[in-house]
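in:
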């Protein structure tokens, strides 16, 4: 899922993805996506796949947190 999402961003927004994935050691396929999703270019666009990805990440974090609390109290 994450790889498909990164490919979608690279195909739809090639200039921004190239700038994001550039680092001192060369190209990084995944780039610094977390920073861009929170306060960079990708936080400002209204792409449906991007919105679904953010929503999935939120639900995944909630599930992990709830499972952690359940395990802690057992």
């Amino acid at each position: 899922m994450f790889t498909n999402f990164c490919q979608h961003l690279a195909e739809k927004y090639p200039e921004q993805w190239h700038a994001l994935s550039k680092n001192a050691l060369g190209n990084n396929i995944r780039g610094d996506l977390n920073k861009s999703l929170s306060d960079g270019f990708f936080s400002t666009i209204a792409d449906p796949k991007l919105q679904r990805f953010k929503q999935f990440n939120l639900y995944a974090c909630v599930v992990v947190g709830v499972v952690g609390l359940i395990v802690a109290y057992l």
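note: The helical segments are 2-12, 14-21, 33-39, 48-73.
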